[in-house]
Amino acid sequence: MQIPSLTISAVRQGLAEKQFSAVELAQEALAYAQAENPKTNAYLTFSEERALSAARAVDEKLARGQDPGALAGVPVGVKDVIVTRGLRTTCGSKMLEKFVPPYDATAVERLEAAGGVIIGKTNCDEFAMGSSNENSAFGAVRNPLALDRVPGGSSGGSAAVVAQGTAVVSLGSDTGGSIRQPASFCGCVGVTPTYGRVSRYGLVAFASSLDHIGPFSRTVADSAAVLGAIAGRDPHDATSALHPVQDYVAAMAQPVKGLRIGLPKEYFQGLASEIGDRMQAGIDVLKKQGCEIVDVSLPHTEYAIAAYYIICTAEVSANLSRFDGVRFTTRSARGETLIDMYRNSRGEGFGAEAKRRIMLGTYVLSHGYYDAYYLKAQRVRSLITRDFAQAFEKVDALVTPVSPFPAFKLGEKTSDPLQMYLSDIYTITGSLAGIPCMNVPCGKTAEGLPVGMQILTKHFSEDLMFRIAHQYEISGGFAA
Amino acid sequence: MKLTEEQVRYVAGLANLALTEDEIHKYAHDLSDILTHIDKLNELNTDGVAPMAQVLFESGDLATLREDEPHAPLSNADAVRNAPVTGQGYFKVPRVIER
After folding, report:
1. A98 carries an active-site annotation
2. Contact A85, A118 (CB under 8 A)
3. CA separation for the pair A480, A465 (Å, rounded)
4. Burial B60-95 (b: 16+ CB within 10 A, else e)
5. In whole angstroms, what is the distance from residue A453 CA to residue A441 CA?
6. Which pLDDT does position A366 carry in this prediction?
7. CATH number of the domain that B21 lies in?
């Protein structure tokens, strides 16, 4: 079996034709991932026991003639901000270096119920805060396509394992672009579904009104299959949506002729030609398939980053207050009083970016500033969401770049946090609106670095988004 | 918007975060930069625009509530297992009340 290029359908076929058993596949996938991992540092923890026991369950079901599930035997990497019972979950933070969760996230439970085989936990920026994966307490991840460059962030490990071939699919989380941007840097598919489409139960909270779980894969079909398995209402998350889950894989087959695709002009102004040219090539692929290309405007785009960094940091400051040296593994040895123990544990346990965001969030929520910052940002969030609603009256979907530049060199952008924040411009708007959005590969720069194209649709229109992405893929768009 | 080191110390106190002098100096600079960018929002008139606290979808008032059915909670041993210091099934913290 060719571990690095496996797909879900290849695994299904291999199991059905008895080319390999699920246990054999798990063993080989683990051995391959362990051998390759030192190149990228993409996995933080391997879960051999858990993987083999999940694989044995798949083999037993097959032997009994039962349906082993849509993801049967598929080796999966799970971002280390998603909790796994009995399996260390660090969130990329020293604060949780030894944290072993007592329960499984709903997405993990559903993944395994569908036959998925979790082989390890993937590296990420601390508490999912970052755009380069350089904020992990356990070392940066290197981009498997260019080892001196970043894989993007915050789900850099989850993107890297799929690009490297050390997992068939993976789960990441996205708050402002943390799935789409690393997918674009590593040349894979990455999906941020509608807010509430996948339960957040067991996703360690970063910014609760913006956090999403979503899949990475090498083909559109594989992300569609994973989302189908993990999506849906969960009584453990009151914000999880009641809408029925569509059959995303079946929806992909329909042609896209006649669909209206909008290009928001704000996303193309001043775009560097190495990205702009690839975008044009990708758009031409859709045009050839019979899509009508329409210019649209999302006039409040330029305010998105300011609104996002108020809302997200405010929620961070509240969510991260639970890490106080009492319940979660790490306590400072210094501090005679309770308050000093809190302060020292947090000062020693959090990394630089987590502290920066806690500080900013605490400031914007502090006495006298709430109206000027948080409330104002929430009003602007309404305007940005309204922009999308108005655009979707004219078009079926939007297509935009994912990042203003391809993967950059390790260390290149760490000195200026504001510049790093500003690079999230194309992904943050969709996060604020809570609409489904995904990255699909869109050719490479002259240097051979992947470029990504973003497809965005209306709330709960994942079926349409996957359909466009799949039709684009099968007409050669990934190499556009 | 420029933040002084004094303001940074005050905010760090509110956040229960011990910062070194270097960090205070650095965050005063970083936060000032970011807040200056954030001032951009003042260009927008948002009078009469409702704040969006959450992505919400049409559904019945009680649709998102689950049945109030009893279920087994996390065991005491599981609940305290990750704590750095425990005793008798409780979390232990430095003394709060002077005797």
Report:
1. no
2. no
3. 19
4. eeeebeeeeeeeeeeeeeeebebbbebeeeeeebee
5. 6
6. 94
7. 1.10.20
Query: Side-chain half-sphere of A153: how many Cα atoms within 13 Å?
Result: 33
ipTM higher than 0.90?
Answer: yes
Contact in structure between A189 and A224 (CB atoms under 8 Å): no
Give the span between the Cα atoms of A274 and A446, in whole angstroms. Answer: 8
Rounded Cα–Cα distance for residues A332 and A335 (Å): 7
- Which domain covers residue B10, as residue numbers? 5-43
For chain B, the 3-state helix, strand and coil shares in percent, each to the nearest 5, are 40, 5, 60
Inter-chain Cβ pairs, chain A and chain B, closer than 8 A = 167
Homologous superfamily of A1-480 in CATH?
Amidase signature (AS) domain (3.90.1300.10)
- Give chain B's count of helices (H) and strands (E): 3, 2
Q: Where are the alpha helices (DSSP H) in A241-375?
A: 248-251, 273-288, 304-319, 338-349, 352-365
Which pLDDT band holds residue A279 (cuts at 50, 70, 90)? very high
Task: Give the pLDDT confidence score for residue B1 in this predicted structure.
Answer: 77
Q: Which tokens hold the place of A133?
A: 């994966």
Contact B34 A336 (CB under 8 A): no
User: Is the minimum CB–CB distance between B1 and chain A shorter than 8 Å?
Assistant: no
Q: Cβ distance A263 to A400 under 8 Å? A: yes
Number of domains in chain B: 1
In the sheet that holds A43-46, the strands lie side by side as: A43-46, A117-122, A75-79, A169-174, A212-217, A189-192, A437-444, A450-456, A397-401, A260-264, A292-296
Q: What is the pLDDT of residue A443?
A: 97
* Closest CA in chain A for residue B16: A343
